[in-house]
Amino acid sequence: MSESAALKLTDDTFTSEIEDAKGLAIVDFWAAWCGPCRMVGPIVEQLAGEYADKGVIVGKVDVDSNPRTTSRFNVRSIPSILFFKDGKLVDTVVGAVPKAQLEQKIEHHL
Fold first, then answer.
1. Which carries the bigger pLDDT value, residue 75 or residue 4?
2. Domain containing 37 — which CATH number?
3. Active site residue 41
4. Which of the following is catalytic: 34, 56, 63, 82?
5. Cis, peptide link before residue 79, omega less than 30° from 0
6. Would the pLDDT of 3 be above 70?
7. What ranges in the chain are assigned the alpha helix state H?
8. For this structure, is 47 an active site residue?
9. What pTM does this model have?
10. Residue of 24, 23, 44, 38 whose CA lies nearest to 101
């Protein structure tokens, strides 16, 4: 696959990229060693491409490399996909879920 459509977020960039943003942002908390994360990863990339024209920000946080952000949002199970509206946490999906379920959440919050 070519360059990632989703933003690679870190402890240092999370606030400026997500919490200071207007509109909807979804963030995938994942780890390289997590099997279900590897199932959800391509779905998150697809959503990033498909919703870019609607202004939806899609990002990914590697939980092993970014412990501050991971603990700030109390992420205990991965994959966890957090939904932010105008910088505020509004919804969470935990576990490997079908693309349709994530699309439904996105449409609900748009």
1. 75
2. 3.40.30.10
3. no
4. 34
5. yes
6. no
7. 14, 35-51, 67-72, 99-109
8. no
9. 0.95
10. 44
Residues in the chain: 110
Radius of gyration of the CA atoms of the chain, in A: 12
Residue 46, classified by CB atoms within 10 Å of its CB into exposed (0-12), middle (13-18) or buried (19+), is: middle
Residue with tokens 């998150």: 44
Q: Note whether residue 82 is domain-resident.
A: yes
Tokens, residue 41: 């990863």
Say which of 6, 18, 26, 37 is annotated catalytic.
Answer: 37
Nearest Cα to Cα of residue 56 among 31, 81, 36: 81
| pLDDT greater than 80 at residue 93 | yes
- Sole residue written with tokens 């910088």: 87
Strand order in the sheet with 80-85: 7-9, 57-62, 24-30, 80-85, 88-94
- Structural domain includes residue 2: no
